[in-house]
Amino acid sequence: MNTQIWDLRKYEENVVKYPKLNEIKETLLNDGLVAIPTETVYGLGANARNEHAVRKIYEAKGRPSDNPLIVHIHQREQLEEFVDGIDERVSKLMDVFWPGPISFILPLKTGYLCEKVTGGLNSIAVRMPSHKIGRALLQYIDEPIAAPSANLSGRPSPTKFDHVFQDLNGKVDGIVNGDQSEEGLESTVLDCTQYPFRIARPGSITTSMIEQVLPGSIQKANYFEKDKPIAPGMKYKHYSPDTPLTIVENLTHKIDNNEKWNDVVFIFPISMKYLLPENAQFIPLCDDEQDIKGANHNLYSVLHSIDSSNDIKHAYIYSFEKKDQSEAIMNRMLKAAGNEVIEGDEL
Ligand code: TXA
Ligand code: MG
């Protein structure tokens, strides 16, 4: 398949001026798959009302068919067609956090979207992205767009056009280039089908940010629950680079040079570089130990880059202190590392 590339970076402020805008719309409305930028990660979009198009998403990604998709909208009125009532409390959260990096799981009203979108569940995950280009495209197309992250299943999510191109060129109809995703981690997924609500996947909208709006509204969930996870996607192997990855906790001493570090990379805050062996490679994760936002933004890009380098046999990555804001990045890192964690003392 020939994959069209649509470079919209120069049209960020005025997407409707992009000369081939209609081509993107037509592709999506005629069964096509188009990868689009969002502020979290790139999504692989298809018309959520078209069974054939949605089936192609699962094929292109190699995604298990019981893993439901998030439906992307540009205005709340769209939900009336396929969501069975919106609770006042959910509405309040939407007022505060939308458009933005949070998806709500809501009761599904059947008959409007095709069944494949939800994998047979009676609930539906919805999100209104804030990315200028992504949002303008959703407005222009004006149909609910189902979009999982635009990577092959089990690979790190794509935060740059190049990542999408690497995984999906030749497998999808088109890719929109919209620069690097600002947030860098997938949205928070909040299950609102029961109260208190539960976080099915942590993201940059944290428990305490939600509780600030609605005190006492979140019930703690275990994201590593394999038997009965809230989000079916959480039970699959995820975000794994091919290079073995180990998380390093509590590194406080300087690691001496040694030839065993020759083909090793350390992915650490710049502020900690002085503790690392000079003969190892270094990739900055973020500015310093407090810079979680920077690390979120960079993580997937770093994971992609270690795989494309031939001379890296092992990667060690910095572990953030456990707190509300670091929950999302530590959740992704632990999955990428297959839970491999060591103490700094052991290095
Ligand atoms: O930031 C994001 O959310 C990105 C961008 C493209 O919007 N999308 C994304 O989609 O990360 P995906 O498919 O990679 O992850 C969706 C997650 C999966 O873990 C899935 O199991 C869960 O949301 N999910 C979707 N619908 C659900 C539902 N009805 N009930 C429970 N979990 C659901
Ligand atoms: Mg994904």
From TrEMBL:
Instruction: Note the SUPFAM superfamilies from the entry.
Output: YrdC/RibB
> What is one GO biological process annotated to this record?
tRNA processing
* Residues that hold L-threonine according to the record: T40, H72, R127, A147, S187
Keyword terms, alphabetized: ATP-binding, Cytoplasm, Nucleotide-binding, Nucleotidyltransferase, Transferase, tRNA processing
- List the Gene3D superfamilies hit by this protein, alphabetically: DHBP synthase, Threonylcarbamoyl-AMP synthase, C-terminal domain
According to the entry, every stretch annotated as the YrdC-like domain falls at 18-205
A cellular component term (GO) from this record?
A: cytoplasm
Show the InterPro entries listed in the entry.
DHBP_synth_RibB-like_a/b_dom (IPR017945), Sua5-like_dom (IPR006070), Sua5/YwlC_C (IPR038385), Sua5_C (IPR005145), T(6)A37_SUA5 (IPR010923), TC-AMP_synthase_SUA5 (IPR050156)
Enzyme Commission (EC) number: 2.7.7.87
Highest taxon in the source lineage: Bacteria
Classification via Pfam families: Sua5_C, Sua5_yciO_yrdC
| Keyword RNA-binding annotated | no
- What catalytic reaction does the record list? L-threonine + hydrogencarbonate + ATP = L-threonylcarbamoyladenylate + diphosphate + H2O
Whether tRNA processing counts among this entry's keywords is yes
Residues bound to ATP:
R63, N67, S149, S157, R201, Y239
Q: What does this protein do?
A: Required for the formation of a threonylcarbamoyl group on adenosine at position 37 (t(6)A37) in tRNAs that read codons beginning with adenine.
The family classification in the record reads: Belongs to the SUA5 family.
Name the record gives this protein: Threonylcarbamoyl-AMP synthase
Q: Which species is the source of this protein?
A: Staphylococcus capitis
